[in-house]
Structures are given as structure tokens and as C-alpha cells.
Amino acid sequence: MKKSTLLTSPLFSGMSELEIERALKIFDAVEKQYAKNEIIAQTGTKLTRFGIVLEGTVQVNFIDIDGNLVLMASVTAGDAFAESLCWLKVQEIPVTITAFSDARVLWLDPSVLSSNCDDALVTMLRNRFISILAAKTLAMNDRVQVLSKPTLRQKIITFLSQYSNRFSSKTFSVPFDRESLALYLGVNRSALSRELSAMKNEGIIDFYKNTFKILK
């Protein structure tokens, strides 16, 4: 396991190697490998652990009442998924989690965090875990802002502005290919490609694959 990847996670950031080793024991950590397109967790099942992506990309998808696929999150190395689902002990998860590419996932059991244990490391992990849950709530607010925009261009501008602010840079990469980005924005892929090309021709943005630059 690459400790450097764990250090990019808010849960383990700044920890010493000994603290990480002990934290992994506290969480009863289990590492698993998944092939591209393999289903990691199916809608209607129960999750007792949350995952941190060590390598590759994992996607969280939801099927709406009309049967449309909605991409909820694209999770890359160092980021976590399913925290709320296991913390709230959801009996039947409403999403399907899939390996978008070959991926390695570290599964962690957060049950010790809800205990009365007053160990200093457990307390720190508990506080960090709660902060991660709060950050995910803010991320969902960002998603609502994108989806609430009435036009495709406004959705794109809002989405790109959010990533620009997140990285404090006009140039940044997003964890989506065109198909995934269309699903995330809730739009048609062809329409998305046309609008991106139009914005590029108008000098508003520039892009190459999943790397964007805001020009105006």
C-alpha cells in the first residue's frame, strides 16, 4: 500500500507512519482490487465500510425514477466514498458503485468512531471523519447549484468555476471523461461536446481531454 496516497486523504493527512499503521488497525482496514467496470457495491445492498481509492477511479451512480443514469460522484486516488451510507447504517443503499477503471480500494470500518473510546488517535480520526461528512454535504450543494442552472452553458460555467476555485487555478483537471461529465451535468453528451467546442471557439475556455483552462 502506498502511504503517500493515504496522506492525500483528509483522514490521514499529516500523520506519521506509525500513526497511519495504528489507524489502519483501528479501522480494520482491508484492501481490495477491482477490474474496470466491475460492480463494487450494488443498489439495494448494505455497506458496513467506506472506501478510500488508492488507485484508479470509482464512480457512484444513481438511477432516477425515469430510469435515467445519474452520476453522483467520480472518486479518484486519495478520496473517499460511501462514508454517509455506512455511518448512517443504510440498510439498502440507493446507488451502485462501479470501478470506472482498474482500481484499488481500501475499505475501512468506522464503527469504532461511534464508541465511547477516548483514545487520542480515535478522537482525532472521529473529528476528521465528521469533517469529511460535512465537506461532502457542501459538495452536494455545489452539485445542486450546477443542476439548477437553466441552460447548458450556465451549467458548464458553474461546474468549471467550482473546480477552478477548488484548485485556486484557472487551469485544472476534472475526474470525468466526456460521457461521465454529461451524466454528471445531466445533459446529452453530443450537446455537451458542441457547447464546449463553441465556448472554446469564442475564447471563453480552452481544454484538452479532461484538462480545462478558463480564459474569461
Question: Which features characterize this protein?
Answer:
alpha+beta; Jelly Rolls; 39% helix; four-stranded antiparallel beta sheet; globular; 216 residues; 11 strands; 2 domains
Explain what the structure shows.
The protein has 216 residues and is of the alpha+beta class. The chain folds into two domains: 3-140, Jelly Rolls, CATH 2.60.120; 149-214, Winged helix-like DNA-binding domain superfamily/Winged helix DNA-binding domain (Arc Repressor Mutant, subunit A). Helix content is 39%, strand content 24%. It contains seven helices and eleven strands. The chain has helices spanning 3-6, 17-26, 83-87, 120-147, 152-167, 178-185, 189-201; strands at residues 30-34, 39-41, 50-55, 57-63, 69-76, 80-81, 96-99, 103-108, 171-173, 205-208, 211-214. The chain has a four-stranded antiparallel beta sheet with strand order 1-8-3-6. Strand 4 and strand 5 form a beta hairpin. Helix 4 runs antiparallel to helix 5 (152-167). The longest helix is centred in the middle third of the chain and has 28 residues, at 120-147. The model has no long low-confidence stretch (mean pLDDT 93).
Backbone CA Rg? 18 Å
Distance linking N and C termini? 42 Å
**What is the CATH fold-level name of the largest domain?**
Jelly Rolls
CATH top level assignment of the largest domain: Mainly Beta
* Low-pLDDT segments: none
Give the fraction of residues assigned to helices: 25-40%
Beta-strand content bin? 15-25%
Structural class, judged by helices and strands? alpha+beta
Average predicted local confidence, pLDDT:
93
